[in-house]
Amino acid sequence: MSAHRLPPAEWQPLQSLLQAGLPQAMLAVGESGSLVGQYCDELQQAALCFAPSAPGLSCGTCRACRLLAEGNHPDLLVITAETGKRIAIDSVRHANEFLAYTPQVSARRWLRLEPAEALTTAAANALLKTLEEPAARAHILLLSERPSQLLATIRSRLQRLPFPAPRPGQCVLWLEGLGIPPAAALWLSRQFANRPLRAWQLWESGWVTLCPTWIDALLGLPQQGPVAALRLADNWAKDIDLLLLRELMLSLLADLLRLRNHRLDSIVHVDYLQSLEAMAQSAQAIFLWEALEGWLRLPESLMQNRNVGMLLETLLLSWVSIWSGEKAHGITS
Ligand SMILES: [Zn+2]
């Protein structure tokens, strides 16, 4: 699902790769929502296109490009796992079979698998055999946010693609280029400097208008205490997008840490500066770090099939404990 094509100014790394000849086993590293996913989209399109146009990227009009646009290209297999879910061995067995056949439409078969760290050990081992001896014209692209979590045997088989790191100021320009009003683009880019695609998704989902309600509830919580935290957890558990809440919490916690260090230049939630400053002063550092760790660990906690309601209770209690100084009840690790 590519929201938009990369602007031509960003094509150079792709053109170099295509000219040099594509490896059969590739690794792309980048945060979800960063432009790395976009680079991979462009690369797989160019790799499957019949007649890449003069600059080297896909033509957009040939049969392969049309099949890709329709999501029907028989030589492309994409395996993804939602956050907190694993990629099981059955999916990899299916992928291995897919790669063994000769291409039907394009010059090669293409497997894309993301995030690679979601592979179970059995699935990773099943993939390893194919990585060691890929069929002729089979290409395998793994995307990973945390390549250190991959099996070393897998990692050593992959050639890492040289996609560029995000540049300062790139995100806000990119968002404005998509027609997002400058103030909102700036606000989003403060939070998602390295992840413009994520910022764009959030803009599309209406999060920019929803966010203030969540912030008000969260900033009021320390004064109201643990009972209110449990009530809010109960309310939110029904329908809140926990990972979206995580984005917000991480940015609030980062703001508190910045304010404690008198770094006013990079505050995300400038509209709440006064409240956040007061809260930063009275926060207890050790509990601040504990809360931060809890939110950082959330994807792994979800992966262990933890109950969402209980997770949320623990996380909101640990947020309140930053100011009450009492260890949150029910924290298990
Ligand atoms: Zn084409």
TrEMBL record:
- Molecular functions per Gene Ontology: DNA binding; DNA-directed DNA polymerase activity
GO cellular component labels? DNA polymerase III complex
Every copy of the DNA polymerase III delta subunit C-terminal domain together lies at 224-319
Lineage: superkingdom: Bacteria
According to its UniProt record, the EC number is 2.7.7.7
Record flagged with keyword Oxidoreductase: no
Which UniProt key words apply to this protein? DNA replication, DNA-directed DNA polymerase, Nucleotidyltransferase, Transferase
Q: Which reaction does it catalyse?
A: DNA(n) + a 2'-deoxyribonucleoside 5'-triphosphate = DNA(n+1) + diphosphate
* One Pfam family, short name: DNA_pol3_delta2
Q: Which GO terms describe its biological process?
A: DNA-templated DNA replication
The protein's name in its UniProt record: DNA polymerase III subunit delta'
